[in-house]
Amino acid sequence: MKNRLKVERAILDITQDELARRIGVSRQTINSIEKNRYVPSTVLALKLSAVFGKPVNEFFMLEEGD
Amino acid sequence: MSTNSFLDRERRSVDQIKRFQLPHSFKRIGLIVSVLALIVLFASSALFESAFYKEMIKYVLLFGMLIIVLAKEQIEDERIAQLRLQAFRFAFVFGVIMTLMQPFAHLFVDLFAPDGEPVFAEKSNFKVLWYLLAMQIFYFEYLKKLYR
């Protein structure tokens, strides 16, 4: 699964630290998601959706083989 | 009491056990206890004559390590919970394999270097628990560095 987290974060002009604080996780977790090393739970994805003001499938996309 | 409310109560108590963790500050306490116990253990032959104290210190070390294992991270989020679970799984499998293989390894060594009757030696409680706790702690720290 690929994601546009970094782009969405840039649009809002917030750091990983700020985003992490807003959704109640560590900065390392945001970094892991951005680098595709960790797939977040539905709860976390919905929290991100609330911060970005967009549906989840606009910044998380399935890839071939998923 | 209906079956559903009984199951709900059971589920709630299982959830409480599943979620049980110590506050993050306990990690430092566990580390201090473990390090002190290790130092005393290494110096035990000079410090104590009785094996009783040495055995006791071993269990203090295990308690210290258990505190480290149970202590939360500074930010205990779902990624950390997943890594923690992976570390527990690795520690369990590794610990069981080591415990199962050790008597055979002793037996194998005995075949080539016989020293009396071959012994199918079992591991002590301390060694088994030490393997499990040490593997959990080290693999968890390793995973945290690997997936940060």
Can you offer a commentary on this structure?
The complex is a heterodimer of chains A (66) and B (148). Chain A is built from 4 helices and 2 strands, in the order E-H-H-H-H-E. Chain A has 66 residues and is mostly helical. The model of chain A has no long low-confidence stretch (mean pLDDT 95). By secondary structure, chain B is an all-alpha fold. In chain B, 78% of the residues lie in helices and 0% in strands. The mean pLDDT of chain B is 88. Classes of the chains: A mainly alpha (66), B mainly alpha (148). The interface between A and B is medium-sized, with 14 and 11 residues.
Categorize the overall geometry of chain A.
globular
Number of helical elements of chain A: 4
Residue share in helix of chain A = 40-55%
Alpha carbon gap, first and last residue of chain B: 48 Å
First-residue to last-residue Cα separation of chain A? 7 Å
Count of alpha and pi helical runs of chain B: 6
* Major sheet: arrangement of strands of chain A: 1-2
Structural class of chain B: mainly alpha
Most residues in contact: chain pair: A-B, 14 and 11 residues
Describe the biggest sheet of chain A?
A: 2 strands, antiparallel
Order of helices and strands of chain A: EHHHHE
Question: Beta-strand percentage of chain B?
Answer: under 5%
Oligomeric state as shown: heterodimer
Shape of chain B: extended
Strand content of chain A: 5-15%
Average of pLDDT of chain A: 95
Q: Would you identify the regions of chain B where 5 or more consecutive residues have pLDDT less than 50?
A: none
Query: Runs of chain A with pLDDT <50, length 5+?
Result: none
